[in-house]
Design goal:
The complex is a heterodimer of chains A (551) and B (166).
Chain A (H helix, E strand, L loop, with lengths): L5 H22 L5 H9 L3 E3 L4 E5 L5 E2 L1 H14 L3 E4 L5 E6 L4 H10 L16 E2 L13 H12 L14 E4 L13 E7 L5 E7 L12 E7 L3 H15 L10 H8 L1 H15 L7 H9 L14 H9 L1 H10 E3 L5 E6 L10 E3 H14 L4 E3 L5 E7 L3 H10 L14 E2 L14 H10 L3 H7 L4 E4 L13 E8 L2 E8 L11 E2 L4 E2 L3 H15 L6 H8 L2 H7 L5
Parallel strand pairs in A: 6-7, 7-8, 16-17, 17-18
Antiparallel strand pairs in A: 1-2, 2-5, 3-14, 4-5, 4-13, 8-9, 9-10, 11-12, 12-15, 14-15, 18-19, 19-20, 19-21
Chain B lengths: L2 E6 L2 E6 L3 E2 L11 E4 H13 L4 E5 L17 E6 L6 H12 L5 E6 L6 H6 L4 E2 L7 H8 L16 H4 L3
Parallel strand pairs in B: 3-4, 4-5, 5-6, 6-7, 7-8
Antiparallel strand pairs in B: 1-2, 1-8
The chains are: A alpha+beta (551), B alpha/beta (166).
């Protein structure tokens, strides 16, 4: 965890005081809703169907136990005792009262948290690999860079009124767990042959109405030049991004309109003029790096007898370990994935009690470290293999041990029509129906990796374009219908999915997914994931099967 | 004479505005004037030759680079905020100050509200025509809301990373 200093804390206190004043002016009628809206949005406060929704930032998805306990307490005190983790690794509380919001900000600030810039046309919460600091795949710790970007983007003088929202992801491993190529800027840390650290810079990804996979505009940017390069990208966008049409205002449209080469050329030209003077000094980067609490790992054998004994004795644990336990860079340790996708529950939701269980486990067994993933799950990144059976038992008791990581029921879904004023259709109930269809864990494991992503409207908060199976809710004359897409991916092999055919009614969607899976199981060759089979066969066999009845 | 908020030597105060902002279809009055970029291109030389001070009003979307050659002769650049949320002028102000070394007045006009005060000051604006009736006191309070800043701007504030230096 990055340890805040007095300056970081003053920033939160000042922001909180400013917000308290704005809410007071609103409650006193000095501000009307139109004037108040852009101010509250910059503090994560939305007005939804039933109440205010507060979106709390979890910078690069990193939490300590005190913070998670505070979130649990806030959810219990000011909301209905649960929260919703989002694809931006934030936490949303959906039943907030306006008059409580300033107090909530103060409570958040007391544990070095905030809701700054979780909405609005500004640089949003920065995301990073949830396995940062724990995976042997990474060339550097992406959190250090993400924290530096968090500070740089907070109340930025020039880039706080952009044409549209702006999202940045940082990863440092070849396996992309951040969906970097769907971001406005995706940064992939790499090492050159001489060992020098640099970024592959991808710009102009995004989902929504017109999905784009971000093209690479620079293969290798020396790491020390990151902030001048970000300034160049943001300045070109701030000046030339479209402001006349909200649907064409994201940087992806500018990049696509100019073409990657011309956009890159404009950025490079601006960057040369900016020069190195605005880059973050090396000693500040070193300070940030040093402000992350170091881990202390014991020297352990790579094989844990306790773990192996539990595997042999308890099939349910063995299943959990197969699906939710991932390799750690240090022998004798593992990364434990906590699914927030219990069968029949709302994807990404956690109750206050569940948050407290995870906080306790992180404290006792996990080096005080908790991560939120963009796939709406939690991670304990540093658990001794010997402790995994104990951790599993505690998770199971709290309903948090669903062994479905990356399986068909590990679904991303937006809140949809149950909460959101923008939605055309429900998303949660579709996720629940699909999860129930695949409730048999043996079958789910046999199917293997299958990423289902559901959005309740074209804004694509559920990332449906990049689902192996994507599901988009649409409104057809007042009825909920769903368009299916196949073959998308948000990972290093990113792609936008291809439409399957005519939209299906609500109660046919889970059935259609079942049919798609049957086709995959019939067609698949050795070791192929659903995505691989689809990419080999194309849409035809899937389409024929789903629409067979219609013929 | 109309007034606006002016930042001079770190202090926000009410100042009289000696400039008349002239739209393109008006005749040029006596005295100091602010004209559009188009009008400056066609009439700037003549107006300056008359010994008066001349400012240029730059709309969002017009290239600040069009002014670079003339900046030493221009007294004011008025940057237009067509809407509160249109942030292009922040980039223009920074380029005027940091890249082109403009020492004259940079004025915020249009949909100018107190919530933007801090951003404007940090980008190098020093004159403000608030649309929300803000007094200099209110404006100063809004502009100085944060005790620290994380980035180097076009103002004199010390960024956090420099404050942290031992």
């Amino acid at each position: 965890m990055y340890q805040y200093d007095a300056i970081d804390r003053d920033m939160l206190a000042d922001r909180s005081a400013e917000f308290r004043g704005q809410v007071a002016r609103r409650l006193a009628g000095e501000l009307n809703e139109d004037q108040f809206k852009p101010l509250r949005l910059r503090n994560g406060l939305y007005l939804q169907l039933h109440a205010y929704m507060l979106r709390i930032a979890v910078p690069y998805g990193s939490l300590n136990p005190a913070q998670l306990r505070k979130l649990a307490w806030i959810a219990r005190t000011y909301d209905k005792g649960y929260g919703h983790f989002t694809t931006r690794t934030n936490l949303q509380l959906h039943w907030i009262k306006l008059r409580d919001a300033p107090d909530i900000m103060d409570h958040l600030a007391s544990v070095d948290m905030h809701a700054i810039q979780t909405s609005g046309n500004c640089v949003r919460n920065v995301s990073a690999d949830p396995y940062a600091g724990a995976t042997s795949e990474e060339v550097d710790d992406p959190r250090v860079w993400a924290e530096a970007i968090r500070q740089w983007s907070t109340v930025h003088p020039e880039f706080s009124y952009l044409p549209r929202k702006f999202k940045i992801a940082v990863t440092a491993a070849p396996k992309d767990r951040t969906a970097a190529k769907t971001h406005d800027i995706g940064l992939n840390l790499k090492r050159a042959r001489d060992g020098a650290l640099g970024f592959e810079v991808m710009v102009g990804g995004g989902l929504g109405r017109s999905p784009y996979i971000a093209p690479t505009i620079r293969q290798f940017l020396p790491a020390s030049r990151l902030f001048s390069y970000l300034e160049a990208i943001l300045r070109v966008y701030n000046r030339h991004g479209r402001r006349d049409n909200i649907h064409k205002a994201r940087i992806k449209v500018l990049v696509a309109t100019l073409g990657r080469d011309e956009f890159a050329h404009q950025v490079e030209a601006e960057w040369e003029k900016i020069g190195a003077a605005v880059d973050l000094p090396d000693d500040e980067l070193a300070r940030i790096r040093g402000a992350f609490t170091p881990n202390s790992f014991e020297t352990l054998p790579p094989r844990s007898e306790a773990l192996e004994a539990a595997r042999a004795a308890t099939p349910a644990f063995a299943r959990f370990a197969r699906n939710n336990l991932k390799p750690h860079k240090v022998p004798g340790y593992g990364i434990v994935e906590i699914s927030l996708k219990a069968i029949g529950e709302t994807p990404g939701d956690a109750t206050s009690e569940q948050m407290e269980v995870v906080a306790d486990l992180a404290e006792r067994f996990g080096q005080n470290d908790i991560r939120v993933t963009h796939e709406q799950n939690l991670v304990l990144p540093h658990v001794k293999l010997d402790d995994v059976p104990t951790v599993w038992a505690a998770l199971a008791e709290a309903g948090l041990a669903t062994p479905n990581m990356n399986l068909v029921s590990d679904i991303i879904a937006c809140p949809g029509l149950d909460y959101c004023a923008l939605a055309n259709a429900r998303a949660i109930s579709i996720a629940q129906n699909i999860a129930k269809t695949f409730a048999d864990p043996d079958r789910a494991e046999k199917v293997g990796e299958l990423k289902v992503k559901i959005s309740g409207c074209i804004n694509a908060c559920g990332h449906h374009h990049v689902g192996h199976i994507g599901i988009l809710g649409v409104d057809k004359k007042g009825e909920e219908f769903y368009q299916l897409t196949l073959g998308g991916s948000a990972a290093e092999d990113a792609a936008v999915g291809q439409a399957l055919g005519p939209a299906l009614p609500h109660d046919k969607v889970a059935e259609a997914v079942d049919t798609l899976v049957d086709v995959y199981l019939r067609e698949r060759q050795d070791g192929e994931r659903f995505l691989d089979t689809f990419r080999r066969t194309g849409v035809t066999p899937f389409k024929e099967a789903v629409y067979a009845d219609a013929h | 004479m109309p007034t606006h908020i002016s930042l001079r030597d770190g202090v926000f105060g009410l100042a009289e505005d000696p400039f008349t902002t002239v739209s393109d279809d008006w005749a040029i009055p006596q005295g100091d004037v602010i004209v559009s970029l188009t009008r400056f291109d066609s009439e700037g030389d003549r107006l300056l030759a008359e010994g008066r001070k001349v400012g240029v009003r730059l709309e969002a979307g017009e290239d600040v680079e069009a002014l670079t050659y003339d900046l030493p002769r221009i007294s004011v650049v008025a940057l237009v905020f067509p809407k509160f949320g249109d942030g292009r002028a922040y980039s223009y102000a920074r380029l005027l100050r940091d890249r082109y070394g403009f020492k004259g007045e940079i004025r915020a006009v249009g949909d100018v509200l107190r919530e933007q005060a801090g951003f404007m000051v940090r980008c190098g604006f020093d004159t403000f025509e608030p649309a929300d009736g803000s007094t200099p006191e209110v404006w100063a309070q809004a502009a100085q809301r944060f005790r620290h800043v994380y980035q180097r701007g076009s103002d004199v504030r010390t960024p956090a990373f420099a404050e942290r230096q031992p």
